[in-house]
């Protein structure tokens, strides 16, 4: 399916994407309004954030270039040593930039 993106096609795509995003966000809130939040549900919700992070980082670790892998490694080490997320993120960005600049 092709859509013309020179006139109003791009605007239509953006509006449809915004509507789908709103529908999924509001739909999630609507569905969760029927779920009682007990200790087990709270643990599940807390574990989801970690699983999403792993789902994002695992392909990068397996298929990324040397800069990406060294950035992940340095971020992990700094986070374990310093326990400051901002410092770990900064170290990862710095290492990735240096490796990609030097290679």
> What's the Cα radius of gyration?
20 Å
Strand content: under 5%
Total helix count?
4
Binned, the helix content reads over 70%
Biggest β-sheet strands, sense, barrel: none
Average pLDDT number: 90
Characterize the quaternary organization of these chains.
single chain
In total, how many beta strands? Answer: 0
Shape: flat
* Broad structural category: mainly alpha
pLDDT < 50 runs, ≥5 residues: none
- Give the H and E element order: HHHH
Give the terminus-to-terminus CA distance: 41 Å
Task: Domain count, please report it.
Answer: 2
Task: Outline the structure in words.
The chain has 2 domains: 1-35; 50-102, no CATH class. The model has no long low-confidence stretch (mean pLDDT 90). It is 82% helix and 0% strand. The chain has helices spanning 9-32, 39-63, 66-82, 85-102. The protein is an all-alpha fold and 103 residues long.
Give me the secondary-structure topology.
Layout: H1 9-32, H2 39-63, H3 66-82, H4 85-102
Overview in brief:
The protein has 103 residues and is an all-alpha fold. The protein contains 4 helices and no strands. It folds into 2 domains: 35 residues; 53 residues, no CATH class.
List keywords for this structure.
103 residues
């Amino acid at each position: 399916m092709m859509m013309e993106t020179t006139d109003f096609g791009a605007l239509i795509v953006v509006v449809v994407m915004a509507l789908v995003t709103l529908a999924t966000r509001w739909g999630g809130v609507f569905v969760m309004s029927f779920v009682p939040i007990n200790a087990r549900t709270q643990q599940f919700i807390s574990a989801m954030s970690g699983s999403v992070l792993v789902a994002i980082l695992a392909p990068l670790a397996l298929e990324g270039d040397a800069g990406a892998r060294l950035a992940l490694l340095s971020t992990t080490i700094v986070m374990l040593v310093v326990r400051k997320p901002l410092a770990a993120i900064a170290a990862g960005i710095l290492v990735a930039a240096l490796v990609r600049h030097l290679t």
